[in-house]
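User: Structure please.
Assistant: Input sequence and predicted structure:
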Amino acid sequence: MTERVLTEQDRHSACWLKLKAYYEERLALLRVQNDADLNDMDTAKLRGRIKEIRALLGLGEDKPVIVNDEDRFKD
């Protein structure tokens, strides 16, 4: 997915800022848990949760424009 999900206005809304703060705190807690001595299955589950939270937080970030190599070399 290359297009933004949230508009600039969305990213400055009170709702998004609350959600962002919540997920940043949750991410910090999951990272601490990830540093603990867990079995392989629990570690994999935890890393999946971390990845999903990072994806959610990524909704509010600027995304770089992706240019196809074919388009770059056209005159």
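The mean pLDDT is 85.
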